[in-house]
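Hi support team,

I'm filing this because I wasn't sure whether my run with NAI finished correctly. The job status page said complete, but I'd like someone to confirm that the output block is well-formed before I use it downstream. Pasting the exact inputs I used:
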Amino acid sequence: MANDILKGKRGIIFGALDEHSIAWKVAERAAEEGAIFTLTNAPIAMRMGKINDLAAKCNAEIIPADATSIEDLENLVNGSMDKLGGKLDFVLHSIGMSPNVRKSKPYTGLNYDFFQKTIDVSALSFHKVMQTTMKLDAMNEWSSILALTYIAAQRTFPDYSDMAEAKSMLESIARSFGYHYGTAKHVRVNTISQSPTRTTAGSGVKGFDDFIDFADKMSPLGNATAEDCANYCISMFSDLTRMVTMQNLMHDGGFSSTGITAKMLGKD
Ligand code: NAI
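And here is everything the job wrote out:
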């Protein structure tokens, strides 16, 4: 259902890799709600080519950028303002990658070069994006910046490995930058902590199928889907949430507040 709640808004959406990506669903919903935006991903991810289908569907342009490169980010932000015809109203950071997880390194035997890459791609990139938009004065007053995170930032999920540290840092950056961007420009900065979701990044975590099933049973509403997450992101980009900032917003069907469920005990 579309209500044009993003009509007239301009944005950048990072991280749509394929139709399962959370960012993909956000782009589809943002277009339905009347937003115009650029799509971006790491140059290496472009090779899959799927993002072209999304761009055609959403009438969006693609500007490749490695989110760890300031030069790429400056090109992306300037290019987006040029193509969209003005300053931005929203940014979605939907980026995560751990070489340690990819290469199945145990948490107690992390490769530290990989660890630094995990932090750079999955957390520091969020700071780099905001430092770049701030330097280029690219965000409108009351605009909204979001990143996606996971509850492993607060609680231990052993196979999430060094991504847990990255997510803790990501959430902290949202609070810290949120303060500075809020006081300087009324720009809002938040993270959404999403249920486990079947995507390329999600499925990379060992034992993901058991894990998604466990989370579903532990959540009174069940797991939030990528489509649900997209709807939440749209509300956070809209003017209906203009006083929400510096928050880590749980979007998990109640998982984070639940101790035990009848389903887990096999009693329903
Ligand atoms: P995805 O694999 O579709 O998206 C991750 C994206 O990060 C990909 O598009 C990838 O190309 C991009 N990326 C990796 N390195 C990059 C770089 N250097 N520069 C720019 N982009 C880069 O998976 P998903 O699940 O949609 O992930 C999106 C976000 O949601 C991530 O932050 C992830 O940690 C978070 N999240 C995912 C959950 C899940 O279970 N799938 C649960 C909670 C949070």
